[in-house]
Amino acid sequence: MEDIAKALELKNELDNLRPIDKEKEAIIMQKFRLDWNYHSNHLEGNTLTYGETKALILFGITAQGKPLKDTLEITGHNEAINWVLVMIKGERPLTENFIRELHTLLLKESYEVDAITPDGKPTKKKITVGSYKITANHVKTKTGEIFYFATPEETPAKMYDLLNWFNQKIKETDVNPIFLAAEFHYKFIRIHPFDDGNGRTARILMNFILMQLGFPPVIIKTEDKANYFAALQMADAGNIETFINYIAQNLVRSLEIMIAGAKGENIEEDDDLDKEIALLEQKLKIIESTKVLKSHKSSAELFQNSILPFILTYTEMMSKFEKLYSSCEFEIFGDNFNYLTKEDFLQNFKADEIDNLVLNKIKIYYIFSMLKQTGFEEVKYENYISIIFDANSCKIKNFSDTTTWEVLYDSILTKTEIDKIVKSEVKRHKEFIEQKIAEKENK
């Protein structure tokens, strides 16, 4: 257990440097957050590079040619990390409700994935966020054996027992934080309580425990994926010490980075430059490759196959809020069309008109005024969507947010992707109303 002893020794060194200068600590935590988002998602198959992850988190720039699902995974994971950092400052205890809230932030919205029935037939499986699994999620190993996690029926009791175990352990005066965090990670994975996102949730919870106890987060690097899973498999075989020691090894690296940052030293790692070089190499390849650029044909096809379905879904969902308000204004316009009501647009906009459209920019305004309740007459909610057809891609942007959704001219927004974007707009509107209600209740 040499690595565990070293980690505890470095923790003492870090404590002696505290309090850390706020700006230095912000730089350190930004590096950890970027690395954590990139590696934890990449371990699960996300295709965004480190540079693309950084551009998305810091500047809201989405990667061209990458699945929308991958962008949503990164943004959801980053929101979950930021939430956890706030919870640590507030000293919030670890509970089942905490874990379900975390899972909801991580995956954002429920969705469907391809699955296989027990008799080998393809099917669809609904992934429900923030709720324990309702179907078995056992896996087949390389040898063809079935590795069994907790059944849906067992899961609530096992999660209750896990939190009881944790809350008893953390009160012990001689508890080893590294043992506690690593063992919680493993016990959580053995239950596999959710239909999806269990690995990412386990790593966030492990780091929540470590950070609550004054340690930096552990970053499991994607290039070390084989060793990470091998250590978990050793634990499955009864040797959990190997997994705990593996976590300690990675914790040593995080502690060394945090100590260097606290001292004002360079915290960039050798492979950080490799990541940036790889990003530059990729960008050069993209420039060399043949791309579908904007033309009358490509923009018309993109509009018909992706943008129009998005607009129809968006207007349908946003119109559900109209019953809550006394007044609702709507306008959608482009270079050669303008509709002042949703009904006019739906009734008069014909698919055969698409070939005659000039597609540069489409704007959609929704203004909801005066909630139908005494005391809420001054409430107004504005939603402004801009759809821009530029030379390389089409961008969907909400001006109350920094996120831009990008669609290439040779791609199509799937129904799932459209639903994700629209649901994010619906969620923002719901949260706005809830905030106004909370403000009134607190007066």
From TrEMBL:
> Looking at the record's lineage, which domain of life comes first?
Bacteria
Q: Where is this site: Important for autoinhibition of adenylyltransferase activity?
A: 44
Cross-referenced SUPFAM superfamilies: Fic-like
**What is the protein name for this chain?**
Fic family protein
Residues annotated for ATP binding in this entry: 129-138, 196-203
Could you cite one Gene Ontology molecular function of this protein?
ATP binding
Query: Which InterPro entries does this one have?
Result: Fido (IPR003812), Fido-like_dom_sf (IPR036597), Fido_containing (IPR040198)
Q: Where is the Fido domain?
A: 94-249
A Pfam family annotated for this chain is: Fic
**Active site per database record:** 192
Going by the UniProt record, its keywords in alphabetical order are: ATP-binding, Nucleotide-binding
